[in-house]
Amino acid sequence: MSISMAQVVSPPTILVSVDTQTHKASSKPLKRTHKSNTSISTKRKVPRSPLDRTQKLNLEVSPHRAVSAVRLMRIELGGAFADLLNEKGKGSGDNEMAYVERSLGFRTKALDDRDLRLVTDVVGGTIRWRRYLDHLICSLCHDENTFRSMEPLLLQILRIGVYEIVKLDMPPYAVVDENVTLAKVALRPGAGNLVNGILRKLVRVKENNSLPLPKLEGDDRAQARALAILYSHPVWMVRRWTKYLGQEEAIKLMVWNNSQPSFSLRANNGKGVTRADLVTQLNLLKVPHEISLHLDDFIRVKTGLQNVIQAGLLKEGVCAVQDESAGLVVSVVDPQPGESIVDCCAAPGGKTIYMASRLSGQELG
């Protein structure tokens, strides 16, 4: 019996499984079944290109949900940082799908710009509202033990579905159908049935305005626990903020803390671009924005940053993405010509560049 060339050069297959109790990854190599009397071809072995390998492409599964589930797994079980998973540049799409294939056993179609925005929104929102989402999921389960023993991937899929229905107000039928499909394909039919039951129950109680949420009643400890669920913050933090700020101000702070983050654009005064010029450009691109309340050169943008990038405003130096907090530092420093200023934590140097642009061509010392 002879072996084909592909059999010779292919590495042993490794299956990676996740222990649902310990959340630790374990690897189990498949048993090799080659017989000892097999003959091996003496032809020169040519390495196979990655493009030649058969990829398990699944077109039924929602790309943004599959990628979101894998990212959430990497964050919760692998200690990854959400911001660092927003990879950009050449080959980033292939890298993303490689993670999906290793984790779920298949690839989805490539992510488009809309999918990428959804992934960022779903992952960030699911992390921010995790305590709230978990309370709803647990309340809608048959019993608490069902929730406690739920495997990590299944829990992430449910969190995504609940977040999309409750916080993003996506069409319920689409959310239920596509998350059920993901659970069935990535796990097993029974997992899909569980997702279907919980999400459909959620849709019913949401339509009846009867979400199973705690009420603000009882002593201070009981109210702190309720607030922690309602606004998805740690109990100790709720108690501390309530103690020092009062309940009303603490709630305002928690609402702000979990709000959708916005971006700030700084007009490049060094190139003679004023904030009014930048506003004109954003209006032409139909990018919703608002003027910064604190800095003359800054504009806040909640959505549409991709349009700004595609229009080339960053590449051409019309503006830069910079947080207002960084701009406030420069405003406080108030650099003057001839001064020597040392930036001890410069990376990538945004504040230093802003200081230079404020000098209008004049030099620091």
Task: Characterise this structure.
Among the domains are: 5-52, no CATH class; 220-257; 269-358, no CATH class. Strands 4-5-3-6 form a four-stranded antiparallel β-sheet, covered by helices on one side. A two-stranded antiparallel ribbon has the order 1-2. It has helices at residues 5-9, 63-78, 92-104, 113-128, 130-140, 144-148, 152-166, 172-186, 189-207, 220-230, 235-245, 247-257, 275-284, 305-310, 324-333, 350-358; strands spanning 14-18, 25-29, 263-267, 289-291, 298-301, 319-321. It is of the alpha+beta class and 365 residues long.
Order of helices and strands: HEEHHHHHHHHHHHEHEEHEHH
How do the strands line up in the largest sheet? 4-5-3-6
SS content category: alpha+beta
Biggest beta sheet summary: 4 strands, antiparallel
What oligomeric arrangement do these chains adopt?
single chain
The averaged pLDDT comes out at: 82
What are the low-pLDDT stretches, counting only 5+ consecutive residues below 50? 1-54
**What is the CA–CA distance across the termini?**
80 Å
- Tell me the helix content: 40-55%
Please count the helical segments: 16
Based on Cα principal axes, name the global outline: globular
By DSSP, the count of extended strands is 6
Cα-atom radius of gyration = 26 Å
What is the strand content? 5-15%
